[in-house]
Each structure stands twice: as C-alpha cells, then as structure tokens.
Amino acid sequence: MHDAPPSPADPLAPLPSFPPRPPLVAEPELLSHGLKQRHLTMLGLGGVIGAGLFVGSGAGIAVAGPGIVLSYLIAGTLAMLIMRMLGEMSAAMPASGAFSVHAERALGRWAGFSVGWLYWFLLVVVLAVEATGAAKIANGWVPGIPQWSWVLIFMVVFTVANLAAVKNFGEFEFWFAALKMGAIVLFLALGVLAIVGRLPDTDPVGLANLTGQGGFLPNGWEGVVSGILAVVFAFGGLEVVTIAAAESADPARNVARAVRSAVWRILFFYVGSMLVIVTLLPWSSLKPGESPYVAVLDTLGVPSAGQIMNVVIFVALLSALNANLYGSSRMIFSLAERGEAPKGLLAVSGGGVPRRAVLASVAFGFVSVLLNLKWPDSVFLYMLNAVGAVLLFVWGLIAVSQLRLRRRIEREAPETLSLRMWGFPWLTWAALAAMAAVLVLMLTDDGARPQVLWSGATTGVVLLVAWLREVRTVRS
After folding, report:
1. φ, ψ (nearest 5 deg) of residue 382
2. What are the residues facing 16 on neighbouring strands?
3. pTM above threshold 0.70
C-alpha cells in the first residue's frame, strides 16, 4: 500500500525526489518475545526514576522554591504528551527501533537515520555517567576496590545479562523498578503522615513552608521556568518502554497498557514527592547537589537516612545503565535492519538476542566510561554537552512523526489505532511549541547554552550525513 501524493501545501511533505517512505506494516521482528506485560509496566514506571529525581531535584528547588511543584507538573505534562504520541504510533506499528522507525515512515530515511543515531549516541554517553556514579557509591562502601574495578564489574555483569536473553533484562529491570517504586511509595507515606502530624513526636506542619520564605513563588515565574530547565530532562528514559514492547508476546496491546499505566503514575510520583519535600522543609534549607529526600528523612529521624538513599540511588543508577544498554543495542540493531548501520550487527543468537549490537553498544560505552574517568572535566564534558539537548530533538521528531502518521494510519489501517493521542492535532502542536520554548530558554541561560550549541552541532553533523546519504541514493 502506498501513500497518496502529498499536497504541495503540506509543509511536512518529503521532497519528491527522495526514495519513497516504507509501508506502515513492517517485516516480522527477528528478535525474541521474552518480555512479559509486568516487565513492560515496571520498565515504564521505573525506567525514568533515577538519580535525576533523588539528587538532581535539589537544583530545581534551589531556583524555583515551592514553585518546583509547578515546574515538575509542566515538564511532566510535556513528557506525558510525548509518551502518548509515541504510544499511539508504537501500538499501531510496534518495532524495535520505535520512534526511529516511525520517523522513517513519516518523513523519510533521513529522519529515521538521524533520530536513531542521535538517540544511540545519547544512550551510550549517558551510560558512562551512570556507571561512574554507581562506582563512586560502591567505592565508598568498599574502598579497597578501586573505582575503575567497580565500573568494569558493572559493565561485565550487565553485558552478560543482556547477551543471555531478553527476559534477563526484563527481570533485572522489574526488580530494580520495584525497589525504586517501593522507596518512593514509602517516602510519600511517611511524608504525608508527618505533614498531618500522625508520626510519633510530630505536629501538623501546615502551609508555613509553602507560604513563608518568600511565598510559593519566591523567585516568581522566572524561577518556575528555571526549574523546568533543571528538571525536564529527568523525564528522559520513558521512550525505552516502546522499544522493549517489540519483544513482548503482544506488542500492540502491551505497549498501550504500559504507556497508559506509566505516564500518570510517574507524574504523580514526581509531583507528589516535590510537594511533600517543600511542604515539610523550608526550600531555602535545601542545597543543590544534596538529596532533598535525605534531608526529609533526616528531619523525620529515620536512622541512616543517607545510607538508605545511597542504596536507592545506587539501584537507580544500575537500573538506568541496564536500560540504556538494552535500548542502545536495540536501536542500532534496528538501524542495521534498515540499512542505516553495518549489516554485521544483524547477527541474532538462537534465543533471539542481537549479540553483536549489544557488544557494539557496550564497547562504545566502555570508551565513554574511560573518558569520564580520565578526563571528566574536558573531553567527556564536551561529549556530555554534545548530547545534552538531543532529547528535545528526539521528542520533536516524535511529535512531527505523529502528526504525519496519524492521518496515514486512519487512512490505511484505522483498526490499529488502539491508543489515541489526546486532542489531536492541537495538543501535538502545543507540545512542539513547548519544546521550542525550552530550547529558546536554554539559549538564554548561561549554564544551559553550551548544551544547546554543542548538541545543535552534533545534530547538524548527523543531519548532514543523512542528507548526503539521501543525495547519493537518488543519484545512484
């Protein structure tokens, strides 16, 4: 089945000289289907909850005060809209490459190539941050084992887990996510009991910390906006659930259920946690770089609060490392399937695991870790800045792809629309406008500007390569 000729007035129409976009129905996946619904659900719930929430939220509170609740609400709503769009496309057209495949079907090969390689690069660079962070915590517990040895141990363990079978990845993520979710639920329960004065030796807190210290918006709406810049990227990672859905028994049904259950609960946990923190403690007493969760637990008199949170953060980092290794291997495998990466990466084990893709991803991950250990403030910092704002480009292409594919799916395969984007197309356009606004705000922020410029340069290089490939294909 082929597309109807695009209208000349359609600003998103691909150039007519480029190769036609692939059909909506893809070839059957070569990968296994070892993931269960419970794996996907917990992956969606736990994959996005990491050190960015447990520690990084302190930086947001420092600039927004109690208004950080609004910052998380706005940033979380944007992430929720993106996931709804991605869920709609993935339920209709499940594929291991997820949004890279969707972008190719919607806009052409250049889009699938660009978003796929950028996302792979993002994952393998961030993987180094997670491995190094977990190694620092482990080194504090067992100083006799050097930090580099811990990194090696983690990388080997999760490489083996990802090489063995996809169900191993699913089980790791299930229990990692369960621990993180349990920690947050317990934190929220203790916090609410403390707020209403139901814990021993506590009195009701009231609203003093929300209305005092300069009020709910001590730095005005400018503080809320700065808070958005500080927390919006903490929602990155939700996308992996749509990549993983292709390796479940019923991808379309499972991804729809996972997206529905994940987005609302994650928003609740993020916003709920922030509301508990700024209600219990004066926002000015919280310091960037220190976990506000530890500060709350210390205030409540929880013994060894710092060590408890270290365990939770340690698990969160390992969970993210595992998920990023999985997501990067499946993305580069999908690129190879479509001829956008070396064909040698297509080798699949008898159990349906793309082992060469896993090894290629972990190899670059090892390089990133070595750069982070050796030159954390120079070479690796440039690499980190080069992917700092890439997530916004990925989200932007997800939104544009959904705008194009929704009409096409309604025309060619309406029965596959088991999950629909809310308020289409207006909320999709609103999300695109919000992402553009975030980029503009990052350009005006001295701390965020280098990320935008370096990430823009990285994106520009990848787009140039994609364009040259298209030109070469047309001429041949």
Report:
1. -65, -40
2. none
3. yes
